[in-house]
């Protein structure tokens, strides 16, 4: 076989080598594998069965903040509807079936209402015009609390 001198190589063979092709293919395979794992495990999803749903077994609370301050904290496992009103701003927040949603708001864009319910760890709903945020947070455990006492 005759070898083609480097000066006569043209097009794609001049710039791309076998190692480059292997690197690109490996990167694509790795990205697809990561995406598949994320989809199957539900990472980042707000739907039931998503990655954050283990928070319900541990315990969680709905924390409602208004103007950057905690306004109310509600247990996630008890259904409730609360109304926040201040300075002409109004938000109706519902905790139902282990999730939370903004049922009503008098903001102009209604993005917070149209977002729908969130559930799982760190689910967030924000109403920027009314300066209200709703977040599902894990209950913090006292680090000095005894988990288990074992007798020998």
By CATH, the superfamily of the largest domain comes out as N-utilization substance G protein NusG, insert domain
The portion of residues assigned to helices is: 10-25%
Beta-strand portion reads 25-35%
Mean pLDDT equals: 80
Task: Specify the structural class.
Answer: alpha+beta
Oligomer: single chain
Taking strands numbered 1, 2, ... along the chain, how are they ordered across the largest sheet?
2-1-7-6
The CATH class designation of the largest domain is Mainly Beta
CATH architecture of the largest domain: Sandwich
Report the end-to-end length measured between terminal Cα atoms. Answer: 79 Å
Describe this structure in words.
The protein is of the alpha+beta class. The protein has 2 domains: 6-41; 54-138, Sandwich (mini-chromosome maintenance (MCM) complex, domain 2), CATH 2.60.320. Helix content is 24%, strand content 31%. Strand 1 (60-66) and strand 2 (69-75) form a beta hairpin.
Task: Give me a quick take on this structure.
The chain has 152 residues and is an alpha+beta fold. It has four helices and seven strands.
Offer a few descriptive terms.
single chain; 152 residues; alpha+beta; mini-chromosome maintenance (MCM) complex, domain 2; 2 domains; four-stranded antiparallel β-sheet; three-stranded antiparallel β-sheet; 4 helices; 24% helix
What's the SSE blueprint?
Layout: H1 12-15, H2 18-41, H3 55-58, E1 60-66, E2 69-75, E3 80-86, E4 89-96, E5 99-105, H4 111-114, E6 124-127, E7 132-138
Antiparallel strand pairs: 1-2, 1-7, 3-4, 4-5, 6-7
């Amino acid at each position: 076989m005759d070898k083609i001198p480097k000066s006569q190589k043209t097009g794609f063979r001049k710039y791309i080598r076998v190692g480059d092709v292997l690197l690109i293919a490996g990167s694509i395979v790795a990205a697809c594998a990561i995406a598949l794992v994320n989809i199957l495990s539900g990472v980042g999803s707000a739907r039931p069965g998503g990655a954050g749903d283990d928070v319900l077994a541990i315990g969680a609370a709905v924390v409602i903040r208004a103007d950057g301050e905690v306004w109310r904290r509600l247990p996630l496992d008890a259904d409730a509807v609360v109304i926040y009103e201040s300075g002409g701003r109004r938000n109706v927040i519902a905790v139902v079936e282990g999730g939370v949603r903004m049922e009503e708001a008098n903001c102009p864009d209604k993005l917070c209402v149209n977002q729908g319910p969130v559930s799982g760890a760190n689910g967030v709903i924000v109403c920027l015009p009314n300066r209200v945020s709703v977040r599902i947070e894990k209950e913090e455990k006292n680090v000095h609390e005894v988990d288990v006492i074992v007798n020998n």
